[in-house]
Structures are given as structure tokens and as C-alpha cells.
């Protein structure tokens, strides 16, 4: 076996160190975000199984809105990181400003239906009347704060793309704490506050997060970060078209994923509120190892974009592989621990024996899928950081349609138990992982180029 040269060892260790330096704050940020969803479910568990199902439904609708905005954030990461890596600060600032304005416009459009027809949206899940009513209230109140959530996401994305991953973390720590506290207080009517139940979880949490977002924007507007605001309503339309060109496949991917998840939720709802609640609790629990992989994906996208912007494709390739190895170690380790304590975790969340039994099975299934999910996060993150957002879309469509929805539908037609529905998730993630590894090894994504234009109006 050929011995590595000192320079090769140094490059490998440097790649790992840079991935970790960017990944750990992002991982903690996403763990905090996940903790909020976890605590929303825990608070709802004190209100009954229908409340858990309602919050699960509300979160899924909220994630649909957020996922579409995440598609735009993927494009913003690719452009800002590449400009920043090339030392073109003015272009990076204009790209982030353009992405922020576009995100507010998209969020405003997506907010209209959740405020006007929340009952109709909740009714799509086929739940019982009580759960549907509770879900509609949750959807309405959380939708009131979509614009603040969009602004927070895009500003945090832009800062992370420049390598500043700690600033968004500080604000999220405060936001998460207040979100949980306010949500609990309004759910149960602590002190002078009214007891609002499920609606209180959404209103309290959304209001708390919005207050912190305002502070985040004020700090940025005053020039306290390395990335400065443009402070003008005009948009760099060439850059906007470039953003949308890169974002369209990512937005389509996220929209398809979330709509497919809605359909998957509807299939599970056919098995009753108990199975639906178990799925919601299971998702809130296994989200912790999942967001660790997401953190490595964000770090990889940033570093790959910066390396390509600096003209170092080989280092970009190395970064992706190192990120994958690190994501595999972290996600598999945590999933083993979760599987070992699956029953204890499920019991902590709710005291319904039937829900507990179903939740344990779900945890086992999703933990088996963790290695494939690590491939998804790390390698898809690298592709998106290079601006290759179309192939992850193809991989996602293949997995979600052929590996999840079609087999799940066949299981219901054959009258199989809900355990089979949980099991089809393994096929979804396996198909996606195989396709992404193939694309990454082809190196074709390294040849993508951004349009060159004179630059943003100054």
C-alpha cells in the first residue's frame, strides 16, 4: 500500500477540520431547532393523543412552507459561498440581499392559504373532526409568523455561506428557549396568560421566535456582521435570475418531498390516530441524528462552493468524501444509542401503550436507514454547493415516488399492517443514496460554471 505524503495527510486533516469547524455550530443550531419541535410534541402529549396528531400535522404544513424557502437558501449558499471564496464581497452581499427579498415575497404568497383556509388544509390529512380542528388552529397561528421565519432563514444562510456559523447559533439559542417557554405558558395558561391548548403552542412559539428575528435583523442592519446589508430595494436582476435558475430544481425537490410526505402522512392516517401520533413522535425523536447529518450537509455545501470559487476542484472533491465519513460515524453512533433506548424514549413522550409500541418499531426502522441518509446529506450538500441542484432532484423524485409512495400504496391495497408502511422508508433512502454516490463519483458536477456579469449595482 502506497504511503501518503505529508502534504496529502495535511490536506486530508485540513479538510476534516474545516468541515467540523463549520458543521458543529450548524449541528447545534439544528439540534436546537429540532428540540423546539420535540418539545412542542411533548407539550402536546400533555393535552392528549389528538393534540399530538394536531401538532404533527401543523409542523408538517409549516415544513412545507419552510422547505420551499430552503430551496432558495440552497441557491443562496452556492452563490454567496462562491463569491465570498473568490473575494468578491460586493457580489456576495448583493446575492444575499436579493435572496432575502425573494424569500419574503415567496413567504408572503405561501402564507395566504394557511391564514385563509387552514381548516381545508388540515382536512387533507383525513383525521377525525377534533384533531382536524386542533390542527387548523395550530396551522393558522404558526402561519402568522412565516415572514419572520423566512427572514431568519435567509440571513442565517448568508452568514453561514461566508463561514460565520456562530452568529446564527447565538440568536437561535435565545429563540429556542423563548419559543419553548412561551409555547408552554400559552398552552396551559400560566399566570395571567390564557389557556389556549394546541393553538397556544403555535402562538407562543411563533411570537417568541419573531421577536428574536427582529433583533437579528437590527444587528445586521447596523453593520455588526462581516456581511453587510445593501439597504436598497433594487435587485440585481441578473443575479436574481441566476438564483432562481439554481433554486428552481432545489425548490421543486423540497416541494415534492414535502408534498410526498403529506401523502405519506395521509396513508398513515388511514391506520388511525394512534399510528399517526406514533409516527409524529417517532419523527420528533429521530430528528436528532438526522439534523446532525443536515449540519454536515450545510458545511459541505459552503466549503465546496468556496473551494470551487477559489479554483480548487480537487479539494472540493476531498471535502465531500471527508464530510460523508464524518456524517456516517456521527449518525450511526447516535442511531445505535437511540435504538437501544427506543422504548424508554417513547415512554418518556407519551403513556399510551399502543402508541409506544408503534413508536419503537418506527425508531428501529429509521435507525437502519441512517447510513443511507448520511450519503444523502453529505453528497447532496456537496452537489448543491457546486450549483448542481438538478441531480439531487432526480434522486429525490426516484426515491420518494418509486421507493416510498408506490410501495406504501401497494401495502395499503394488500391490507398489510402499518409496520410495512414504516419499512418502505428503507427502500426510499437506499435508492437515493445509490444515485447520489454515482453522481458524485462521476465528477461531472465539478465542471458547472456560474454566469459572469459586470456585477451588482453599487
What characteristics describe this protein?
458 residues; mainly alpha
Structure, described:
There is one protein chain. The chain has 458 residues and is an all-alpha fold. It has 16 helices and no strands. Helix 2 (49-85) packs parallel to helix 5. The longest helix has 40 residues, at 6-45. Residues 1-10 and 450-458 have low confidence and may be disordered.
Distance between the termini: 55 Å
Helix-strand topology string: HHHHHHHHHHHHHHHH
How many helix segments?
A: 16
**DSSP strand count:** 0
Structural class comes to mainly alpha
Task: Briefly summarize what is shown.
By secondary structure, the chain is mainly alpha-helical. 82% of the residues lie in helices and 0% in strands. It contains 16 helices and no strands.
What are the SSEs and their pairings?
Layout: H1 6-45, H2 49-85, H3 89-116, H4 118-123, H5 129-143, H6 146-161, H7 166-188, H8 198-221, H9 237-269, H10 273-309, H11 313-340, H12 342-349, H13 353-368, H14 370-385, H15 390-413, H16 418-442
Helix pairs in contact: 1-2, 1-7, 1-10, 1-11, 2-3, 2-5, 2-6, 2-9, 2-10, 3-5, 3-6, 3-9, 5-8, 6-8, 7-8, 9-15, 10-11, 10-13, 10-14, 11-13, 11-14, 12-13, 13-16, 14-16, 15-16
